[in-house]
């Protein structure tokens, strides 16, 4: 499915994200809406327009709490946008934040909006624990009992096994069509492209080292510090392991295929809470409010493939964009491929190098070539930052823009794999002025 974003040009004015907070065996200090509001308030304070000037708010979220139905609307109202600013929530698994950006861009391009706040949020540590269907049926019968005698009859049918919880997070990370977890799909790619455990661990180590350097060098001013109700301040991603080493990584056992596998918690992304929001605007809004321009959204693409190979989604989404714009892999100045798993990102690199894959799966005449890894995730990725699934698609676009600014690059690609066998990609171009 193409999303060329025809019509008026769409500009990225600004963006911000929270520190990404690794789940630590208990619920985190913030709900999904809290995270978005905390970073959104700081973002809006920098703007020359009022929150009421926003045309719509679009937020990606996969796991809102029961009290956060249409979480985008809750965020919009808490940000002070006012009752007349519409807001809506999108869900495309791991790419929900990128989907929000794409929808916002299309509304601006088509003239329906001029200023949109878009991005994503998720507090995965708050993923609900559910009752089984059997327990729900038992509760339904209890609620429907009309007399004491009827209630006692239902009580006698209670069995302890009914209390066995259903972990919503684990259900969400499993594909019901192919009955494989996302980690197992990463194992599939490791086997298909002969990716070794050492390669995965080395990639993961570099992710932590690169993120550590980015924080230490002050390159991550996109991160808005946040404070919880106990006064604790969070200034950087808590999943960052500054003491990571190949020796430590090698000690971890495979998690998804315990007998023959190579994918471990350390070479996988983390269960995380976080939010990322961007301000998108038309040229008319930029001129009216005297807004800075930082980048232009050039193109976007959504693709689908075999769910057992879901990690290759970025290849299927980014390749058509490159074809449309006559670009090779290394004609782009920077790449962000979300690090769901080390095997998944390395699998994408291998797929582009493989003649058979490019011919049979992508319809190309030959392999795309070898991606320069010095252009890929140069400040680390989700293995180190974490992967709040509603927010990651927005985070990688935001960070890609910042990388292009810092390095003087012109164009970059952000791409992400999606549970269920899909992929998304967005091409952006650094610019500081609107098109005449």
Q: Please identify the top-level CATH class of one domain.
A: Alpha Beta
Low-confidence stretches: none
Instruction: Output the structural class.
Output: alpha+beta
Shape: globular
Give the tags.
436 residues, alpha+beta, Peroxisomal Thiolase, Chain A, domain 1, eleven-stranded mixed beta sheet, two-stranded antiparallel sheet
Task: Summarize the structure in short.
The chain has helices at residues 32-45, 71-78, 96-109, 133-144, 148-155, 168-172, 182-192, 197-216, 246-250, 283-289, 313-324, 342-353, 355-360, 382-385, 392-407, and strands spanning 2-3, 10-17, 21-22, 56-60, 87-90, 115-123, 129-130, 166-167, 174-175, 180-181, 226-227, 233-234, 272-281, 295-304, 334-337, 411-418, 422-430. It is of the alpha+beta class and 436 residues long.
Write the layout of secondary structure elements.
Elements (H helix, E strand, L loop, with lengths): L1 E2 L6 E8 L3 E2 L9 H14 L10 E5 L10 H8 L8 E4 L5 H14 L5 E9 L5 E2 L2 H12 L3 H8 L10 E2 H5 L1 E2 L4 E2 H11 L4 H20 L9 E2 L5 E2 L11 H5 L21 E10 L1 H7 L5 E10 L8 H12 L9 E4 L4 H12 L1 H6 L21 H4 L6 H16 L3 E8 L3 E9 L6
Parallel strand pairs: 4-5, 4-6, 15-16
Antiparallel strand pairs: 1-14, 2-13, 2-14, 3-13, 6-13, 7-8, 9-10, 11-12, 14-17, 16-17
